[in-house]
Amino acid sequence: MLGFWYTYIGYINLATTILVPLGVLLHYMRKADRHPPVARGLSADAAAFWQLSARRVVARGRWASGCALTLALPFIYMQNALYIEESKWITYLGPLVVVTAIIIVFLCRPAAHRVGNGDLARQVDLNQRTVWSFGRRWWFVGTLSAAAMLVLSLVAAGLASSPDENGDFTQLSVDVGSASAATELIGWYYGVPIMVAATALALAALGALWLNARTPLAVTAGERAIDVWLRNRSTRAVVALSGGALILTLAYVWSQIGGAASLGFEDGATGIKVGTPIAALSVPLIVSGQLLKGLGYALIALPFLTRSPRLTFAAPVGPRAETLPAEEPSNGAAGVTHVDSVASVERP
User: Fold this and answer.
1) Fewer CB under 10 Å: which end of the chain, C or N?
2) Average pLDDT in the 146-167 region?
3) Cα 307 to chain center, whole Å?
4) Is the pLDDT of residue 246 over 60?
5) In Å, how far from its chain's centre is CA 303?
6) Residue 327: how many CB atoms within 10 A of its CB?
7) Of the candidates 226, 252, 25, which has an alpha carbon nearest to the alpha carbon of residue 113?
8) Model pLDDT, residue 178
9) Residue 341 has pLDDT above 60, yes or no
10) What contacts 145, CB < 8 A, 6 or more positions away?
11) 343 CB-near residues (< 8 Å, 6+ apart)
């Protein structure tokens, strides 16, 4: 009965740590999406193309996030069953492997690509674009910082680990005089595969960002504004998923190291209580791991909650300009057209 309540309270704490950062992230995401660009001088075909592209970008992010959240449910259960050998591998490698596969399947494609009909000089794209071109700088800094902290934590844990009875570096040993004690630590045995999986995730994310940036931008100024806006949204989905997986793995690593750091025993000969050299980091690591766990899940859920954009297409003309619905384009008459994307999600 006590174990049931312990597990139940653990789920409540996890839900709380997810909802708080999710609310903050959702607020800033909705604020950034509140005013999409206005495209001027577009034909009806061009307007329909960009509206469809916007709907597809949102749909891909939703499918990717939804699949990741569905496959993340076993991780939420397994975190309370780390004494099972299989659950350790699922917890440590699951988020990285799942998000890597999802990015390859759903997000390794350009946001949109439309070839214009202008002259050659207008179609030559001389802008230098890299994988960092579409997105805010702090998106990439935050993700790279999480990756760096994950690698440093794994290397530190590996250096502090010692071999167990099977020769695997999975334990932390403390020896004082004739007394000794050992506890499980995420050493090289788990750390090396985690770093390999993190490297695979980084390559998949960089590949998706490269494909998103490599295609030439749209020709006209109106189309280019929408093109850049959509590429930013596609980049945000990739960074949110990859960053969420890295932070979630870092949370499990810190929680495990914090638990191992709390090891303590009493020397029977001297009566002295002895702890690990990193005993002071036990509580901060456990608390930080719990907070990061919520942030990781919140980032993975963020693309699923993206609203379908309401693009605006304007083509001002003379004093007799009139407003036309998107379904009834007219030659020579134009105004401001608001096209709402369909609420249903289509598989890309």
Assistant:
1) N
2) 90
3) 17
4) yes
5) 9
6) 9
7) 226
8) 63
9) no
10) none
11) 308
Q: Which two tokens stand for residue 204?
A: 């998949």
Residue type, 335: G
Q: Determine if residue 304 is left, alpha or beta; phi over 0 gives left, psi from -120 to 50 gives alpha, anything else beta.
A: alpha
- Whose tokens are 């509580």? That residue is 283
104-145 pLDDT, tens digit each: 999 998 877 665 544 444 455 666 788 888 988 899 999 999
- Token readout for 190 is 């788990």
Q: How far, in Å, CA of 166 to CA of 157, rounded?
A: 18
- Helical spans, DSSP H, in 103-220: 120-123, 137-160, 188-214
Coil vs helix vs strand at 280: helix
In the DSSP assignment, the letter for residue 107 is: I
Q: Which two tokens stand for residue 134?
A: 């579409």
pTM: 0.81
Which residues does residue 314 pair with via DSSP β-bridges, in sequence order?
40, 336
Q: At what angle do helices 221-261 and 282-301 cross, to 10 degrees?
A: 150
Q: Helix, strand, or coil here: 224?
A: helix
How far is 75 from 95, CA to CA, in rounded Å? 8
Distances (CA, A) of 115 to 32, 53, 312, 331: 28, 14, 21, 22
